Amino acid sequence: MLGVAAFVFVYYTTWALLLPFVSPDSGLHDAFPPREWATRGPALLLLLGLAGIGAFFAKVSAAEARKKAQAGKKV
């Protein structure tokens, strides 16, 4: 996992920070997606992560509300 994380870090750093200083004629540009995805990708991942956290919170809250409602009926 550490190797994968290191690879992703080096790849993204090269893509987002170093690639603008390399000549567009270089073959290095072929190894990377278009530069606008350097900001769109992490933004989409952030939105998906926040949506997942929100869905988990809603599911847990609904389950707790159901438990309280069932406990109230039994008394």
UniProtKB/TrEMBL annotation:
For this UniProt record, give its keywords in alphabetical order, as a comma-separated list: Endoplasmic reticulum, Membrane, Transmembrane, Transmembrane helix
So, what pathway does this thing act in?
Protein modification; protein glycosylation
What's a Pfam family this protein contains? DPM2
Q: What membrane topology does the UniProt entry give?
A: Multi-pass membrane protein
Q: In UniProt terms, what function does this protein have?
A: Regulatory subunit of the dolichol-phosphate mannose (DPM) synthase complex; essential for the ER localization.
Assembly mode: Component of the dolichol-phosphate mannose (DPM) synthase complex.
Task: Tell me what this protein is called.
Answer: Dolichol phosphate-mannose biosynthesis regulatory protein
